[in-house]
TrEMBL record:
<dbReference type="InterPro" id="IPR040582">
    <property type="entry name" value="OB_MalK-like"/>
</dbReference>
<dbReference type="InterPro" id="IPR047641">
    <property type="entry name" value="ABC_transpr_MalK/UgpC-like"/>
</dbReference>
<dbReference type="Pfam" id="PF17912">
    <property type="entry name" value="OB_MalK"/>
</dbReference>
<protein>
    <recommendedName>
        <fullName>MalK-like OB fold domain-containing protein</fullName>
    </recommendedName>
</protein>
<dbReference type="GO" id="GO:0055052">
    <property type="term" value="C:ATP-binding cassette (ABC) transporter complex, substrate-binding subunit-containing"/>
</dbReference>
<dbReference type="InterPro" id="IPR008995">
    <property type="entry name" value="Mo/tungstate-bd_C_term_dom"/>
</dbReference>
<dbReference type="GO" id="GO:0016887">
    <property type="term" value="F:ATP hydrolysis activity"/>
</dbReference>
<comment type="similarity">
    <text>Belongs to the ABC transporter superfamily.</text>
</comment>
<feature type="domain" description="MalK-like OB fold">
    <location>
        <begin position="45"/>
        <end position="92"/>
    </location>
</feature>
Amino acid sequence: MLREIDIDMAPGEFLVLKGGVVQQIGTPQEIYVTPANTFAADFMGAPPRNLVPARMTGAGLDLGGTPLDMGPGWDAAALPARVTLGIRPEHLARATAAPDLVVVLKMIENTGAEAYVSFDLTGETITARLSGRIPEDATALSAAAG
């Protein structure tokens, strides 16, 4: 059944729908940077944003037993005890100093000037888009927030 809906949108704005329900209206940049929910977050970007369940701690997040220090100014009291962490593939980088995370690689896809790598984190498959090439025989990666 089709039904007509009247929505006021500015030129250049997109409408993100799920099951006929409006999830977000905005420019591609607005939806990419500040998605209204996990559906909109997963919708914009290629590859899509990685969504990871996390638990709040005093210093940051607990990603299924892997601590992630969020640094100075972190206020866990302002957020719910359990959250979904959204990580854009391009916001992960190879660590040059002390890594935030050490992971075991599942897949490496060198595409020329960049590489896509996949690894497990809290039972979720995470994809990172890294500049440069990753050796095909690499088994682990140290990652830092990009």
